[in-house]
Amino acid sequence: QVQLVESGGGLVQAGGSLRLSCAASGRTFSNYAMGWFRQAPGKEREFVTAITWSGGSIYYSDSVKGRFTISRDNAKNTVSLQMNNLKPEDTAVYYCAADYSPSDRLFSTYYFNYARYRYWGQGTQVTVSS
After folding, report:
1. I need a labelling partner for 114 at 20 to 30 A (CA). Which of 41, 48, 53, 74 fits?
2. How many CB atoms lie within 10 A of CB 17?
3. Model confidence pLDDT, tens digit, residues 60-101
4. Which pLDDT score is estimated for 73?
5. Is 44 exposed, middle or buried (0-12, 13-18, 19+ CB in 10 A)?
């Protein structure tokens, strides 16, 4: 089992920044690929970004590329999401997710698919006002 706890959400004006953190406990964190997804009211859960267990490969959705940055610290069992130049359309509940994936090649085939992630945090609300 892997337990994930997100923090750092809040209310920010358009153009502002927020940093989300996800703390993991349980199994060996460094064996797990990590992702961030978001879900706005009335919409499906949407891929935001993902990072392999080593940090060697990182993926972003087109909507956040150039504005968001994912990083991980395997020594501290944390993954972070730095969000800059936030837009009202970024408003959503943000979820941290983990999947056992020692193979970067395999992860590259499904990183965007929320159904493939086994472990999820409870979510943190991000609201961007215009």
Report:
1. 74
2. 11
3. 999 999 999 999 999 999 999 999 999 999 999 999 999 999
4. 95
5. exposed
